[in-house]
Predict the 3D structure of the following.
Amino acid sequence: MTLHGQRFVPVIVLDHAARAVPVAEALQRGGIRCAEITLRTTAGIDAIAALRDLPDFTVGAGTVLTPDDVDRVVDAGARFVVSPGLADDVVERALARGVDVVPGVATATEVQRAVRLGLTRLKLFPAAQLGGLGLIRALAGPFPDVRFLPSGGVNPANAADYLADPNVFAVSGSWMATRDLIAAGDVAAIERLSREAVAAVTR
Ligand code: 3PG
């Protein structure tokens, strides 16, 4: 899958598409080579388009809620699609468009439905509120082939623990490139927080 080998998937909310490249380059300097650009702002589509040709960087889209959203983000250059929840039509459109899709799940019922759609890489959202690693380990019993992307409440204090679990393929979150840091243009902080995140799991 496109996200293979990526251990951090930053969730990026951009108010101005012009910030996309400086933010992505700061992530890269810190050792992170992908980002999920959310559709929570109108700048999202233009930001994805701005990043589609950035070398050694994988741009995806988040907060993808409808099949039309899938078409818009794929047309803009997104190589993976993330949703907060599980919608069959979104998954099917993403698969038809040939991009990876990582829908959110919160229950065993949703994991089961996602598996029947052919997926084994799922976002757990909102991870902290749902029970974090405890829930992931419980779900791994009946679904040993599923690997999770916990998102929501992942932070520097718990990211390494999540990533040490064999049922977790990557973690997602906004802490290394918050909306405030992006708005302030503080690329130095984004680079530093990214580097610290990567260092915490490689030592
Ligand atoms: C989200 O969808 O907002 C992400 O899961 C990020 O959550 P976080 O802001 O708690 O990292």
Remarks:
- The chain has one domain: 8-202.
- The chain has a mean pLDDT of 97.
- The first helix runs from residue 20 to 29.
- The chain is about 45% helix and 15% strand.
